[in-house]
Amino acid sequence: MRDLSGVFKAYDIRGVVGEQIDTDLVRAIGAAFARLVGGPAVVIGYDMRDSSPGLADAFGDGVTSTGVDVVNIGLASTDMLYFASGSLQLPGAMFTASHNPAKYNGIKLCRAGAAPVGQDSGLTEIQADVEAGAEHAAAGTKGSVEHKDLLAEYAAYLRKLVDLSDIRRLKVVVDAGNGMGGHTVPSVFADLPIDVTPLYFELDGSFPNHEANPLDPKNIVDLQAKVREVGADAGLAFDGDADRCFVVDENGDPVSPSAITALVAVRELAKDPGGTVIHNLITSDAVPEIVAEHGGKPVRTRVGHSFIKQEMARTGAIFGGEHSAHYYFRDFWKADTGMLAALHVLAALGEQPGTLSALTREYNRYAASGEINSTVTDQAGRLAAIRAEFGDRDGVELDELDGLTVRLPEGGWFNLRASNTEPLLRLNVEAADDTSVAAIRDEVLAIVRA
Questions:
Q1: Which of 5, 128, 179, 449 keeps 20 to 30 A from 191, CA to CA?
Q2: What global pTM score does this model have?
Q3: How far apart are CA 441 and CA 435, in angstroms?
Q4: What is the predicted pLDDT for the residue at 111?
Q5: What is 257-361's CATH superfamily?
């Protein structure tokens, strides 16, 4: 029996092409996925990596071998695949490794209506099916393949959800990182009162300019410089599969995803008073505070898109946001779309005369460390050491919804959680000011890295 635990992750399938992932494997995964979800068809999209078209075709071969049809939408961002899954009411497969280096590729799967497929909602069954390698009876008739271009429909749908027709004209720099934003942004922003200065719109899965991971500060340096150079009102950076969007203001300063979550939440609550807003446990405390102040119901959840989407389905939430710049919308089949979040930010900016830095200031209430990774050989042991150190202190509150969250009596909190895929512990700290953040960070890291 083949062991695929190295490529089946918590939320997707991912690995090095030619070593961990090849056409034979994805063909088997396609057949297993089709058996899991049934007919009538599966929609498939893929990113700009050199390996993506061939892997997508092999997956489609697996699907059609079971008698299920394929709708191939070609080059797509991940949220465009979710649009296809939602609008066509079909399960879907997106071939991408997001911001990972060029040698990687992977598959994000969803059921009809963009419902998530993670370890607890189908991936485990698919893995077991493929690992067993059992012979399955051939379908009486092989499924067909239809090629369908949905880019224009995707762009039109997003523009219906956010009205930018009456905003003042804005100058915006967009860094697509040679990823799928270079494919989708021109269509989405067409005919809007926005003058786009493009950076790295050429589709190139080798990422010749920088990694397509805007959460790493080194990857937004060019965007920040260009915003200042051209006097832009804002800058946007997309990751490789363009489902995440990171924002910088007119000074080139990063706007935290927590502030964007709060801003978009306020706009969504204005349309749907009293609605529920999901936030993961390492977004800023400002998010639930602002949601409650605007009459909404904040709900805290674990990190990860499958957990967010499950909570959105359970609660009927109108919106959800994560510290990683994933933003989820009820009106987008509860799926994440950085593009829709970007349109909300530009609408909010363009509806008033002030700057983006002034607009977002009210959503930034605390200082934060950002995510700090530590390589450790014993994740559980280091977490236990932190629990032992802080658990006996008076007034300290602990919770273990996701890793370990510690709230300190003097104010501030930190979360320490293990990576699902690497020997890392991830630390996030928030407090009233930078000095307090640094003190908490240094105390925790001294124990974690001891």
A1: 179
A2: 0.95
A3: 10
A4: 96
A5: Alpha-D-Glucose-1,6-Bisphosphate, subunit A, domain 3 (3.40.120.10)
> Over pLDDT 90: what percentage of the chain?
91
Place of tokens 């909190």: 413
Among 89-103, 142-156, 298-312, whose mean pLDDT is lowest? 298-312
* Alpha carbons 114 and 108: distance in angstroms, whole number: 11
- For the domain made up of 13-149, give the CATH fold: Alpha-D-Glucose-1,6-Bisphosphate; Chain A, domain 3 (3.40.120)
In this structure, what is the dihedral angle of CA atoms 63, 65, 68, 73, given to the nearest 10 degrees? 40
Element (H or E) spanning 125, and its range? helix 123-132
What is the CB-side half-sphere exposure of residue 94 using CA atoms within 13 A?
A: 30
Q: Using omega within 30 degrees of 0 as the cis cutoff, is the peptide bond preceding 40 cis?
A: yes
User: Measured between alpha carbons, how far is residue 66 from residues 69, 88, 190 in Å?
Assistant: 9, 20, 40
Residue 98 falls in the annotated catalytic set: yes
Instruction: Identify the CATH number of the domain defined by range 153-252.
Output: 3.40.120.10
- What are the extents of the domains in the chain? 13-149, 153-252, 257-361, 367-448
Query: In angstroms, rounded to a whole number, what is the distance separating the alpha carbons of residues 92 and 45?
Result: 8
Instruction: Note the pLDDT tens digit of each residue in 111-126.
Output: 999 998 988 899 999 9
Tokens of 384: 């236990």
CATH number for region 367-448: 3.30.310.50
220: confidence class by pLDDT, cuts 50, 70, 90: very high
Q: Which of 52, 85, 98, 258 is catalytic?
A: 98
